[in-house]
Amino acid sequence: MNVPLKRIKDYEDMGLGLFIHWGLYSQLGQGEWTEFIHGINKEKYEKLADTFSAKDFDVENIVKQAKSMGAKYIVLTSKHHEGFFLYDSKGLSDFDSVHSLAKRDLIKEFVDACNKYDIKPFLYMATYDWHNPLYESDFNKYLEYLRKSVEILSKNYGPIGGFWFDGNWNKKDADWKLDELYGTIRKYQPNAMIINNTGLKNRGKIINPEIDAVTYERGTPDSINHGEENQKYVAGEISLTLNQHWGFADSDIDFKSPKEIIENICHARNIGANILVNIGLTGTGSIPTISDQYMKLIGIWMKYNSSAIYKTRPTNIESGYKMNDFVLSDGKNLYLFIFDLKIVGNSNVVLGGEGVNPRSFTGISKEVKNISWLDNKEKLSFTQNNDMLTIDATGFKYGTDLIVRVAKVEF
Predict the structure, then answer these.
(1) Torsion over CA: 265, 271, 274, 279 (sign)
(2) Rounded CA Rg of the chain
(3) What region, left, alpha or beta, does residue 9 occupy, with left being phi > 0 and alpha being psi -120 to 50 degrees?
(4) Per-residue model confidence (pLDDT) at position 406
(5) Quick one: pLDDT at residue 302?
(6) Handedness of CA 303, 304, 305, 310 (dihedral sign)
(7) pLDDT value for 197
(8) pLDDT of res. 225
C-alpha cells in the first residue's frame, strides 16, 4: 500500500472528530432539511436570518467540551444547503451571519477558539444550494460563486485543517469543475484535507485525485477504500448522528445507546477509519443537554483509552473464534480491544464477571513483557504459545462498565 502524504497521516492520527450542524434551520428544531422536506416558503424561511441571534454561541466552551470528549478536530457547517453563510461573505451575498441579527463572523470565532485549544478546525461547505437561483439557472456561474465562497474561507482565517464538501450527489453527472475548486484550496491551504461526502448511495467513492479522505455517512463498512495500487493513499471517515437528524430536532428522541456509540468509535479504528460524532446546536447556538451528556460519556471512555485511538493503526492479528475483539498498533505497543466483559460482583446481584475469562490472539510471535488494562493499570496474566497470545481478561471492577476494555501489550 502507498505511503500516505503527511497531511493524511496527521489526519488519521487524530482518529476522533466532532461534527457540528448549525444554521437557520436550528431555530425551527426540525432538522437541517426542514426547509426542503416541509416545503417552507423560501422568502418566509430566509427571514429566519432576522431572528438568528447566536446569543448562546459560546464557541470557546464548545471547543473545550469537544476537547474533553477526546475530539482532535471539529467540522462546523460554514454553509448548509439552505445557503446561509456563518461568516462574512465579503459582498458575495448578504445572506450571511454578519447581516443577520447576530452581526458576527461565527467562523472566525470558531477558528480562533480551535487554535486557542489546539483543535484542528475543519469547515463543512454545502455544494448543493437551495438559496442561490444560479444553482438551477446558470450552474457555471453558481460554481464560480461556490469557488469564491471557499476562497474567502481559504484566505482569511489562517490555517484550516480541512474542507468537508457535501452535495455533489445532487447533480452526480454534472461537471463540478473540481480542479478549479480544489486548486483554490491547494493555492492558499496546501496542508488542508479535502473531503467530499459522496452520500448514502456512494459511500467510499473517490471522485477526484485531490480527495484526501472518502466518506461513509452513517455507515459501518467492513473495510476502507484507500485507493488503487500505485495511486495516492486516501484516508476514510465514518460519520454518525446521535439520533436520526444531523441538525437540531427537538422532537427526535430516537438516540443511539452509549454502547452503540463507543462500539462505533472502536469499529472505525479497527478498519483504519476516522470517526465524526455529530451534534446539532440549538437555534441560539448552545449544545443541547442530551448531546452534552453524550459528549461527556464519550469523554469518560476516551479519558482512559485515548492512547489506543490516537496514532494507532489496524493489524493482521486475529482474535479468537466468534469474538469481536481486535488489535491495534502504535508501532511500538499493541492494544487489545476486548468486548462483552461483565462486572465483577456478587452472586446476589448476578453481575457475572467473576472467574477466568481467556481471550486469545493469533499473530503475536514477539515476546511479550507486560499486559495491563488502560483504565486501571491492572496487570493481566497471560501465556504465549508460538504466535498465540492468551490473556486472562478480568471483568470490570464493581461500579464500572466502560463497554469496551482496552489492554496495552508491551514488548
Answers:
(1) negative
(2) 23
(3) alpha
(4) 98
(5) 98
(6) positive
(7) 86
(8) 78
pLDDT value at residue 200: 59
* Residue found under cell 468509535: 265
Q: Please list the ranges in the chain whose pLDDT falls under 50.
A: none
d(CA 373, CA 351): 20
Sheet containing 313-314, strands listed edge to edge, beginning at the edge strand earlier in sequence: 313-314, 326-329, 334-338, 405-410, 370-373
Q: What is the pLDDT of residue 215?
A: 87
The 10 Å CB-count burial string (b at 16+, else e) for 234-271 is bbbbbbbbbbebbbbbeebeeebebeebbbbbbbbbbb
Cell of 121: 478546525
Q: What is the DSSP letter of 57?
A: -
Residues 94, 49 contacting (CB under 8 angstroms): no
- Order across the sheet with 388-392: list the strands: 318-319, 358-362, 388-392, 382-385
Q: Is 59 helix (H, G, I), strand (E, B) or coil?
A: helix
**pLDDT score recorded for residue 203:** 67
How crowded is residue 357: how many other Cβ atoms within 10 Å of its Cβ? 16
> Residue 117's closest CA among 163, 192, 65, 160?
65
CA 218 vs. chain centroid, Å, equals: 11
Residue from 316, 309, 308 nearest 372 by CA:
308
Closest CA to 265 of 295, 289, 285: 295
Structural domains in the chain, CATH included, are 6-308 (3.20.20.80), 315-410 (2.60.40.1180)
Let me know the angle formed at the C-alpha of 176 by 174 and 178, rounded to the nearest 5 degrees: 145
